[in-house]
Amino acid sequence: MVTELLDAIVSWRTFLIALVVFEFAPGALLRLIVLAFPRDDPRRRELLAELPTVARTERPFWVFEQLERALLEGIGERIARVATRRWHPEPLIHRGIFLKDPESVLHYFVKVINRSRTRDIEITHVWFDADPPVHLTLPDRPLPTRLRPRETWEGWIEAAALADIPDVERSGRVRLSSGKLVKSRRNENLPPTGYVAGGGTPTG
Amino acid sequence: MEDPTGHHWGYDLWKRAGVRSGVLYPILHRMLDKGWLKDGWEDSAQLNRKRPPRRYYELTDEGRIALGAILQEARSDARFRSLVGRFA
């Protein structure tokens, strides 16, 4: 059984098929390979654009390496996305004061990170779930705003305004232009001091 | 770091670094995540050949500082000295 399998692998027929596929049809094969990456992943376009610049003699090896890469990274990325819901932003909330203002009172800070590597998101509303809801309306951080991949938006509100909310860190809500509503959680493992993140690119 | 302000393409880096794509690209993506690299696409209007625009990688200021520090550290370590000469 193993001998037959080895014979099949090293046979002339297999070798010729591999030669034809990788040497004469690398473009078609690469188009199939890149489908392993998620639809919006820039690696699809990146690989197809690089192929014409690869030396003809190196193409079979290069395309074969992309097959390995697509299987590991592309399918791995798809599984990771499903497992961790990584394309969703997750609002993180912590308490703090503005160090530059000696009279600063306690604030709650809401940080929204676009964890996608490839997609922009648009934040339309940020509020705390109470009755009535307490919305973040900051002149310095106008909404709606667009966040590029890996970009962060941060807003703040005086803690006194949320005094009636029992679990502030979990009551934050963010709505995206897609209609998606995302709930907040406590921002853990913070350094003792830091900078306030940006405001994205306002679209309103 | 040979050309710290230039645009670099995955295939060129693959050839120059002599490592497999499965090693190189995850490193590039981790550097993108850390903010050491930024990426972009060639301007198709400036291409004189009939091929699609390629994705390039470019070191950020933060990346230049961080990689410079790593290279400096590697130069002082006998184990990496010969390797560093290839890239610095």
Strand content of chain B: 5-15%
Helix/strand order of chain A, N-terminal first? HHHHHEEEEEEHEEEE
The percent of residues in helical segments of chain A reads 25-40%
Residue-averaged pLDDT of chain B, rounded? 80
Structure, briefly:
Chain A has helices at residues 2-10, 12-24, 26-33, 42-50, 59-84, 168-171; strands at residues 92-96, 107-113, 121-128, 134-135, 145-147, 152-158, 172-176, 181-183, 185-186, 201-202. Chain A is of the alpha+beta class and 204 residues long.
Description:
The complex is a heterodimer of chains A (204) and B (88). Chain A has 204 residues and is α+β, with helices and mostly antiparallel strands. Chain A has six helices and ten strands; from the N terminus they run H-H-H-H-H-E-E-E-E-E-E-H-E-E-E-E. In chain A, the strands form two sheets. In chain A, strands 3, 4, 5, 7, 8 and 10 form a six-stranded antiparallel β-sheet that branches. In chain A, helix 3 runs parallel beside helix 5. The radius of gyration of chain A is 25 Å and the shape is elongated. Chain B is an alpha+beta fold and 88 residues long. Chain B has four helices and three strands; from the N terminus they run βααββαα. In chain B, strands 1-3-2 form a three-stranded antiparallel β-sheet. Chain B is elongated, with a radius of gyration of 14 Å. In chain B, 12% of the residues are buried. The mean pLDDT of chain B is 80. The chains are: A alpha+beta (204), B alpha+beta (88). The interface between A and B is medium-sized, with 19 and 19 residues.
List keywords for this structure.
heterodimer; A: 204 residues; alpha+beta; 6-stranded antiparallel β-sheet; 6 helices; 10 strands; 34% helix; elongated; B: 88 residues; 50% helix
Element layout with pairings:
The complex is a heterodimer of chains A (204) and B (88).
Chain A: H1 2-10, H2 12-24, H3 26-33, H4 42-50, H5 59-84, E1 92-96, E2 107-113, E3 121-128, E4 134-135, E5 145-147, E6 152-158, H6 168-171, E7 172-176, E8 181-183, E9 185-186, E10 201-202
Parallel strand pairs in A: 1-9
Antiparallel strand pairs in A: 1-2, 2-6, 3-4, 3-5, 3-7, 5-10, 7-8
Helix pairs in contact in A: 2-5, 3-5
Chain B: E1 8-9, H1 10-17, H2 21-34, E2 37-41, E3 55-59, H3 61-75, H4 81-87
Antiparallel strand pairs in B: 1-3, 2-3
